[in-house]
Design goal:
heterodimer, A: mainly beta, 7-stranded mixed sheet, 4-stranded antiparallel sheet, about 0% helix, globular, B: 6-stranded mixed sheet, 5-stranded antiparallel sheet, 11 strands
């Protein structure tokens, strides 16, 4: 079956702009979570959605937001971009039912802010 | 607080064993995980261990869990160049529903 798909794979923005990233989970997975990966900070949890509801949120400013649609696809949005937002943004999907909890990751969207 | 710590780098020779260490803080975590990230790719689950287990072996991988010290380790036997990657340990935080806490990742470099 198809894996987790993230679009776009690469993008370049300038400070002050906003960006929307998209994630299509594995079919049947109802949980989608988002992570920011930077060389110095490792993997930082942004938020997690299950059946269109945000279940968990990390410690990021309000400029970072997300949503999940009825087909489980998810988007995250970053407004008023800052240089420090340059990172690899990873999406992961799972059944979300608390069994072994395996996350299936996409290849990420690499955002560069100039 | 929630924090998972790992050393940043490890370099080994091909054929040797690699041991990657991790310390975590949430003693109520049910599962602990090891994920692998190859260059240009997302993370893939390598193995996981229940919190009531001390050890789990899976082919070349051995996971050891010391709950008293909140210490998790991953041993890779007969390390190959294809094992070069970043390895993340992770726990599911009991303080929230289904919230993973990842370590900073250990970059393993295997020298031929």
């Amino acid at each position: 079956k198809a894996g987790v798909t993230q679009t776009p794979r690469y993008l370049i923005k300038t400070r002050g702009q906003q960006v929307t990233l998209s994630c299509s989970p594995i079919s049947g997975h109802r949980s989608v979570s988002w992570y920011q990966q930077t060389p110095g900070q490792g993997l930082q949890f942004l938020f997690e959605y299950f059946s269109e509801t945000q279940r968990n949120k990390g410690n990021f400013p309000g400029r970072f937001s997300g949503r999940q649609f009825s087909n489980s696809r998810s988007e995250m949005n970053v407004s008023t971009l800052e240089l420090g937002d340059s990172a690899l943004y990873l999406c992961a999907s799972s059944l979300g039912l608390g069994n072994t909890g395996e996350l299936f990751f996409g290849e990420g969207s690499r955002l560069t802010v100039l | 607080g929630e924090d998972v710590e790992q050393s940043l780098f490890l370099s080994v020779r091909e054929g040797d064993s690699s041991v990657i260490n991790c310390t975590y803080t949430d003693s109520s975590s049910t599962y602990l995980y090891w994920y692998k990230q190859e260059p240009g790719a997302g993370l893939q689950l390598l193995t996981y261990i229940f919190s009531n287990m001390d050890m789990k072996q899976d082919q070349r991988l051995t996971v050891l869990l010391n709950k008293k010290d909140k210490h998790l380790s991953l041993r890779i036997a007969d390390t190959q160049t294809g094992d070069s990657a970043i390895y993340f340990c992770a726990e599911i935080s009991a303080s929230g529903t289904y919230k993973y806490i990842f370590g900073t990742g250990t970059r393993l470099k295997v020298l031929a």
